[in-house]
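Quiz preparation item.
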């Protein structure tokens, strides 16, 4: 005789045991009703069901049947078709938001999640490889710790080349407090974003970053002989602490934010039809407000740890966030900086600085200034080295311009070769004899 498997819940199994004892007259119906929190009439009906059908009589008849509130199959297929066509790489929450915003279809996140799992579009947490992360409590105050990082990614997918997104996130609230698209992680780019952040929020207690060369001198003999980078010098001038994480997991807030942005922001840029860095930076402000409204959280403390910029700092903020280096002035009142020889204008006051050291201020917008103590010196360009020699060392602040110059030079060289050496047909066998 073939065996059959019957699936029952714990409640049904316990109820079957009680009803069996009632039918065997080891328990009265009143006592069974009290034990199961049922009425006596219900116990009588259960006894009849077990007598006629056995254990099957206690199994819920709704089990395995679709809910009466379930969406029609045609509507469910339409949702899966929309998600497959437009949002196949979206998460369930973002997909449900776009169904409401773009298609006026209101479906819960859980329903979308189940539909995507059934269609094989989304994987459950059990199906994904688990990640082990050491927990760390958030800082209690807004502005106490700002995590910063650059994420190199195809933010515009195939519509443009890969670029870098600089991300500033507050540790206490999880809010994005600074975002900027750029070609590469450089000192000037970080300075620009930091300056905008300080003007908007004020000075935080500390910035938390990785060990990128922008933030940390990774070998002996650093800038100005003080083992401090230009970005670190700017933060020191503003009395802001700079902390470097020992591993990516240590600054997990910004790392997880980068993962979220590589999902959400990429798709938002696609839906908005944005394919350039300039348009992307314009779009970031509205995206940042929406992101903070969705994912920002209330800090444990109401205290804002930001400090306002004093008047002197506001006046000097452009000088603080410039590239500063010390140079020695020759007896002929010249100095060399960044492959350029500068001639200081002679005069009674300037003649005295021969052999002294001056400070060169190089600004992100190309503006240039030479200062001796607190006095700005007039100058003129004496000689400029326009070509880049093989294996020249280029500071990361000029890397983007250097690559652009190299590319332009290569294109011009290829064009000259094509004009001077026109293509020749491949020699035939007869001509080679």
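Solution:
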């Amino acid at each position: 005789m073939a065996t059959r498997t019957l699936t029952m819940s714990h409640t049904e199994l316990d109820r079957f045991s009680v009803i069996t004892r009632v039918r065997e007259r080891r328990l009265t119906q009143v006592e069974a009703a009290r034990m199961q929190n049922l009425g006596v009439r219900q116990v009588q009906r259960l006894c009849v069901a077990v007598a006629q059908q056995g254990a099957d009589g206690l199994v819920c008849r709704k089990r395995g049947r679709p809910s009466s509130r379930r969406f029609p199959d045609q509507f469910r297929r339409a949702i899966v078709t929309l998600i497959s066509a437009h949002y196949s790489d979206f998460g369930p929450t973002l997909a449900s938001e776009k169904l409401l915003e773009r298609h006026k279809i209101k479906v819960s996140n859980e329903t979308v999640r189940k539909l995507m799992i059934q269609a094989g579009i989304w994987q459950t947490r059990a199906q994904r490889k688990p990640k082990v992360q050491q927990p760390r409590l958030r800082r209690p105050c807004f502005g106490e710790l700002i995590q910063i990082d650059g994420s190199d990614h195809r933010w515009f997918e195939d519509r443009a080349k890969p670029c870098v997104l600089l991300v500033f996130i507050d540790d206490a609230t999880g809010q994005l407090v600074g975002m900027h698209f750029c070609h590469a992680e450089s000192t000037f780019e970080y300075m620009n974003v930091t300056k905008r952040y300080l003007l908007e929020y004020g000075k935080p207690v500390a910035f938390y970053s990785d060990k990128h060369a922008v933030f940390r001198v990774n070998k002996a003999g650093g800038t100005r002989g003080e083992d401090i980078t230009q970005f670190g010098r700017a933060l020191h001038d503003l009395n802001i602490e700079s902390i470097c994480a020992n591993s990516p997991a240590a600054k997990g807030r910004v790392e997880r934010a980068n993962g979220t942005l590589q999902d959400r922001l990429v798709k938002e840029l696609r839906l908005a039809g944005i394919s350039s860095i300039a348009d992307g930076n314009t779009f970031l402000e509205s995206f940042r407000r929406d992101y903070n409204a969705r994912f920002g959280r209330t800090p444990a403390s109401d205290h804002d740890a930001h400090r306002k910029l004093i008047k002197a700092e506001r006046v000097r903020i452009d000088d603080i966030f410039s590239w500063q280096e010390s140079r020695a002035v020759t007896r002929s009142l010249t100095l060399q900086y960044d492959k350029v020889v500068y001639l200081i204008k002679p005069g009674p006051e300037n003649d005295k600085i021969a052999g002294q050291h001056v400070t060169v201020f190089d600004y992100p917008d190309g503006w240039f200034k030479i200062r001796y103590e607190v006095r700005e010196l007039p100058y003129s360009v004496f000689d400029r080295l326009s070509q880049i020699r093989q294996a020249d060392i280029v500071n990361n602040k000029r890397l983007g311009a250097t690559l652009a110059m190299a590319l332009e030079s290569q294109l011009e060289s290829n064009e000259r070769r094509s004009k001077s050496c026109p293509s020749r047909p491949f020699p035939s066998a007869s001509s080679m004899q």
